[in-house]
Amino acid sequence: MVFKFYSLLYYIGLVIVDYSYPSDTTIFQGRRNPKQQRLASSGDSDDGGLVPPPRKKRHLDTEETMLQPTNGCLQHNGSVDQPSSSSTVNGSANGDAQEPSDSCNIKGRSSQEIVRLIGQHLKLIGLNQTAEVLMQESGCRLEHPAATQFRHHVMDGEWHKVSADLNELQALVGNSCQYFSDMKFLICEQKYLEYLEDGKVLDALHVLRNELTPLQHNIDKVHILSSYMMCSGRDELMKRANWEGKGHKSRTLLMDMIQQFLPPHIMLPPKRLHMLLTQAVELQRKQCLFHNTTFDDSIETVSLLTDHKCSLEQIPCETVQILTEHCDEVWFCRFSPNGKKLATGSKDASIIIYDVDPETLTVEQSITLDGHSYGVSYLSWSPDGELLMACGPEDCPDLWVWNVNTGVLRLKLSHSSDDSLTACSWHKDGQKFVCGGIRGQFYQCDLEGSVLDSWEGVRVNCLWCRSDGKTVLAADTRQRIRSYNFDELSDQNLIQEDHPIMSFTVNKTDRLALLNVVSQGVHLWDLQDKCLVRKFQGVTQGHFSIHSCFGGVNHDFIASGSEDNKVYLWHIKHELPIATLTGHTRAVTCVSWNPVYHQMLASVSDDCTVRIWGPAAKYRKQKSNKSGKFYIDDLLRN
């Protein structure tokens, strides 16, 4: 009841503050007269928040010089209460760093800044005395004395002093920093929450009415803060406010947020050296052509003493396994969404399902699905990996849906004997799919085999359901890819090529499309900007249906088969191949990169074989004996 009573008081008071305070009332930093705002007291005093009158400005003689903070180095050339209004962040209007100070023993701006960064990091890891010795010997200072005083008062929770410190910092920076309202708001918010945690509801109400509300900043957040007065206790307050509670941790987080608003010659951004090193490591990884492991935001897992470097041997470049279970040309392969199964389709009328061993990057035959009288030229896994849809070549009017766990045929779709169903794709809900062919069939069906919708006259080479759950991309015989929406019955052109598009696939961001184009090879398109991004060189593409794929941790790699019996690998940012894999003796018609175990690649060929590719032997695990135990030659390193 007490909390509800005070909350009611707040809402009554909020109306008074917002609409009814007299025009000559000065609230928090001199709202009545903006010219006096920087000189006014904060109103956060021990006498109940009364605001003392503004201080008079000091008139400076022409001979008097100012205390100028330059790049974190102190210049003793006199003193001043307020800097010139022309002061700017970092010493210039565009934010560039100031020239190095002559008072430092370290010459050169870069060297001085490095010393400051090292000093900040030493304090961060608890070597405070070492940092002080460094600053004393170098003649540099880590931050402006006013900033140091401000930090100490915040960390000690001396809020009646913090407001005055903030005024002093605002005077130092002048008009160049536009974020003092944000800083004031953050400080008042911390003070308000601490008062609530301590049970000082009247003090918290005073902060809410007389300090937070008059700022007229982030009004929605003020309303949320007011609701915290109804909290039954400390635990509920911390949970609802997503707050660490009064103490060192929450105040450190507060200082980290405030540091981002102040120019670096006053106070360095939080953990600046750590941030620079993290950015450097990340940039090196992004520029590495062979990096194929998960990015780790922490620099604790890498050595800073050497540059990041991966080798070609760390991507799938060596044959790990050759599979010969098919007795005719193998036309298609595809890993399941969870990466634990591999399906291959062949001219021999069968589909073989293999189980993937992630330890050794090898596969083992699981089940064989027979009865596809025309052969299997295309496969598509359902999003949950339970069902597998299969299509045949041009003359095939049938489509099969198999349960791969039981080997039971779930559905055989045969709408008309004149149909040609050569392409298919699942919607993301796994309850509907689309299929079509070059004879003009384009259907949307459910798992019962019912045709829900159809699009007449569209001769389809390849299909892809987008992640929005309603849009379907179709490559047709007019050398283009169009977007179709069955719900709205709308369509539009996305891509226009000069030669037939035999197949295409889309990356996991649903933005980039990879096309295999007759006599042109592999093209990368941006679906959003509708522009050609890159033409990859090396591959031989005639009139065979060849299927390429994206691969790697972030889909940074491209793989494609070729009519010259090779597999080509590219980095997505480079046109020239980074690797050419040999071993097949006839055209390589399809490749598939494992979406989970990114060191694993599969390729199929008209030579009737399936090849599994992996990194060099020293980068993968191998069986050590018949008991099935494994040893590690070498761990994959970032």
From TrEMBL:
InterPro entries: CTLH_C (IPR006595), LisH (IPR006594), TPL_SMU1_LisH-like (IPR054532), WD40/YVTN_repeat-like_dom_sf (IPR015943), WD40_repeat_dom_sf (IPR036322), WD40_rpt (IPR001680), WD_repeat-ST_regulator (IPR051350). Residues 28-57, 69-106 are annotated as: Disordered. Residues 143-203 form the CTLH domain. Keywords: Cytoplasm, Mitochondrion, Repeat, Signal, WD repeat. GO terms for biological process: proteasome-mediated ubiquitin-dependent protein catabolic process. Residues 1-22 form the signal peptide. WD repeats lie at residues 323-364, 369-400, 581-613. SUPFAM superfamilies: WD40 repeat-like (SSF50978). GO terms for cellular component: GID complex; mitochondrion. It is found in: Cytoplasm; Mitochondrion. Gene3D superfamilies: YVTN repeat-like/Quinoprotein amine dehydrogenase. It comes from the Eukaryota. This is CTLH domain-containing protein. It comes from Aphis glycines (Soybean aphid).
